[in-house]
Amino acid sequence: MFEQVLLKNVDVPGGHLLSSYEAGGGYQALAKVLREYTPDEVVNLVKQSNLRGRGGAGFPTGMKWSFVPKRTGKPTYLCCNADEGEPGTFKDRIIMERDPHQLIEGLAVSAYAIGAETAYVYIRGEYVTAIRRLEQAIAEAHAKGYLGTRILGSDFKFAVHIHCGAGAYICGEETAMLESLEGKRAQPRLKPPFPAVAGLYASPTVINNVETLACVPHIVVRGPDWFRGIGPNKSPGPKLYCLSGQVRKPGLYELPMGIPLRELVEDHAGGPLPGRKIKAVIPGGVSAPVIPQHGLNVGMDFDSLAAVGSMLGSAGVVVIDDSTCMVKVATRIIEFFHHESCGKCTPCREGLNWVVKVLRRIEAGEGVPGDLEQLEKLCKGIFGNTFCALGDGAAMGLRAALAHFRDEFVAHIEERRCPFH
Amino acid sequence: MTMREKIEEAAARYPDQRSAIMPALLIAQRERGHLPGPVLEEVADILGVERIWVYELATFYTLFHTEPVGTFHLQLCDNVSCMLCGSEDLLKHLETVLGIMKGDTTPDGLFTLCTVECLGACEMAPVMQVGDDYHGALDVARMDALLDSLRATAGRVASVEHASARPPGE
Question: Which domains does chain A have, with CATH numbers?
Answer without folding.
Answer: 18-228 (3.40.50.11540), 238-321 (3.10.20.600), 326-415 (1.20.1440.230)
